């Protein structure tokens, strides 16, 4: 017999969090409200975004399709202006068509940034109130929940927090953009956790204290919303999802296809289905799996164009999850096309341009934290192909793309990556006559998929930095 599932959906999300929470074993982050939610939910320990930056990642989350397919290959605000090819594929429209009341509060960054009423009409929301700091988002969400409680109509409420995105502050030193803005206080009350991909020095510790304060600030907002949901008696009839767009806004994380750029917190509290209570799932999942999962949970059909797979069988029946997750970057603040395929143990990255190994995500001229692999004046240009043994080298420092002992691994991941690129209609499969590097990388990826050894004379490489 099919379990009875809650019918409402409250989807909470934030910027730039990665998995930097107590629930994900970061002991110095004060996130008691999200930790409590995790304890009542299924927490996915190996969830990944499809892109390491805001708009493409969110477009995948809310459409169940990859950026190459949905059209959002870069940022959706001016002057970039990327947009969903078909805005009606948004989850809000899917649910509105099925009779749901739909509302967006806070961050909207998954389609072209336009006036709120225009966004509502395009994406299928009854109401959109975008923007606002934590307190504004909480106030508007409380009001929306009050209205929902007075109605018999099921609701989809999409709530986005800006925090812990970097935010300018009058207290920042010249050339620095930190995490505090004008309302957040740095927090080292439980100590500091400097991620292993950063140098552990005074600059990194200053940034991490600010980041921990911003996460705590956001967590308090989540707590206020969940408390009000409970006070209204809606918790037992509401699926609660919490996630973020991508990894932390730190060097060698955001804007890279290394795990710290793509890893995301993902937890789902599903009343009425005991298999979802207090679970931790270590199988790899992708943001594209969220939409088909939610639709199955509320007994609606999965759209034919969905590129994800429902996680209901994974959680409730113990079925195997996906064999690969895929990541892509095309255009953030400049064109830096790259693609990645990840298995449980290995990752292959194809870099189609000669950009630096890691795009700067700090939006600062003066850097307070630096990559741990930096041992010279530059981190160098990226190699054509990168292959990492994630078990022995979880920091992804030892590129083994030309190691004959891993030729079978390289071939399998290259084949999976090329197949995914074809299935998603990836524009990078077309040769770019203005970019010789593009030709070489596509040829190298194709040869790798065929099991050919790497060329004896590779593309020019920068000095090794790790």
From TrEMBL:
<dbReference type="Pfam" id="PF00884">
    <property type="entry name" value="Sulfatase"/>
</dbReference>
<keyword id="KW-0378">Hydrolase</keyword>
<dbReference type="GO" id="GO:0005737">
    <property type="term" value="C:cytoplasm"/>
</dbReference>
<dbReference type="GO" id="GO:0008484">
    <property type="term" value="F:sulfuric ester hydrolase activity"/>
</dbReference>
<dbReference type="GO" id="GO:0046872">
    <property type="term" value="F:metal ion binding"/>
</dbReference>
<dbReference type="InterPro" id="IPR017850">
    <property type="entry name" value="Alkaline_phosphatase_core_sf"/>
</dbReference>
<keyword id="KW-0479">Metal-binding</keyword>
<feature type="domain" description="Sulfatase N-terminal">
    <location>
        <begin position="8"/>
        <end position="297"/>
    </location>
</feature>
<protein>
    <submittedName>
        <fullName>Sulfatase-like hydrolase/transferase</fullName>
    </submittedName>
</protein>
<dbReference type="InterPro" id="IPR000917">
    <property type="entry name" value="Sulfatase_N"/>
</dbReference>
């Amino acid at each position: 017999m099919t379990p009875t599932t809650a019918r409402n959906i409250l989807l909470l999300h934030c910027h730039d969090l990665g998995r930097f929470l107590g629930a994900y074993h970061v002991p110095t982050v004060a996130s008691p409200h999200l930790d409590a939610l995790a304890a009542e939910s299924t927490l996915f320990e190996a969830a990944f975004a499809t892109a390491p930056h805001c708009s493409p990642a969110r477009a995948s989350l809310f459409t169940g399709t990859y950026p190459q397919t949905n059209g959002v290959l870069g940022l959706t605000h001016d002057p970039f202006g990327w947009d969903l090819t078909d805005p009606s594929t948004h989850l809000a429209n899917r649910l509105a068509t099925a009779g749901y009341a739909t509302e967006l509060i806070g961050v909207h960054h998954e389609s072209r940034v336009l006036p709120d009423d225009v966004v509502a009409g395009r994406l299928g929301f009854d109401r959109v109130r975008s923007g606002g700091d934590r307190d504004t988002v909480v106030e508007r969400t409380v009001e929306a929940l009050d209205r929902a409680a007075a109605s018999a109509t099921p609701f989809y409420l999409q709530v986005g927090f800006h925090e812990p995105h970097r935010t300018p502050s009058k207290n920042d030193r010249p050339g620095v953009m930190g995490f505090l803005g004008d309302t957040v206080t740095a927090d080292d009350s439980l100590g500091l956790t400097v991620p292993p991909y950063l140098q552990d020095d005074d600059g990194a510790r200053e940034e991490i204290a600010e980041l921990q304060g911003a996460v705590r600030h956001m967590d308090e907002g989540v707590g206020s919303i969940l408390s009000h949901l409970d006070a209204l008696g809606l918790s037992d009839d509401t699926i609660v999802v919490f996630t973020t767009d991508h990894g932390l806004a730190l060097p060698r994380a955001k804007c890279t296809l290394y795990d710290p750029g793509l890893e995301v917190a993902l937890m789902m509290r599903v009343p009425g289905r005991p298999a979802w209570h207090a679970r931790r799932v270590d199988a790899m999942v992708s943001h594209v799996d969220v939409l088909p999962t939610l639709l199955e949970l509320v007994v609606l059909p999965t759209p034919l164009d969905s590129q994800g797979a429902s996680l209901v069988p994974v959680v409730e029946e113990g079925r195997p999850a996906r064999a690969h997750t895929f990541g892509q970057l095309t255009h953030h603040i400049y064109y830096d096309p790259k693609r990645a395929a990840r298995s449980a143990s290995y990752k292959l990255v194809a870099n189609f341009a000669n950009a630096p190994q890691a795009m700067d995500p700090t939006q600062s001229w003066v850097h307070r934290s630096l990559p741990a692999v930096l041992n010279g004046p530059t981190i160098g240009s990226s190699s054509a192909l990168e292959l990492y043994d994630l078990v022995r080298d979880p920091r992804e420092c030892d590129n083994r793309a030309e190691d004959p002992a891993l030729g079978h691994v390289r071939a399998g991941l290259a084949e999976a990556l090329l197949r995914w690129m074809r299935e998603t209609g990836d524009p990078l499969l077309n040769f770019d006559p203005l970019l010789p590097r593009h030709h070489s990388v596509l040829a190298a990826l194709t040869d790798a998929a065929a099991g050919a050894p790497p060329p004896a004379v590779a593309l020019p490489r920068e000095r090794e930095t790790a």
